[in-house]
Write a structure and sequence with these properties.
Helix content: 25-40%
Structural class: alpha+beta
CATH class: Mainly Beta
Largest sheet: 5 strands, antiparallel
Strand content: 35-45%
Shape: elongated
Oligomer: single chain
Distance between the termini: 27 Å
Number of strands: 5
Radius of gyration: 14 Å
Length: 82
Amino acid sequence: MCLAIPGEIVEITGADPLTRMARVSFGGVIREASLAYVPEAKPGDYVLVHAGFALQTIDEEEARRTLELFEQMGGAAEEGAE
């Protein structure tokens, strides 16, 4: 099973579609991700990232819903540990 995390592209470097990289914000934490699979992505877009690769673009509402679900899952796991 693969878990892709939504993040917002804040900056893109490179022009070659196969080597373009993005700085992606995950709630303020910035990480690098390859845009080889989403050549249409641009700053401000939300992407699903797994293992350093942006796999697809998604809209902002979908990104927020996914992040809320992750937060709920984390809270449930913390409650179960008590």
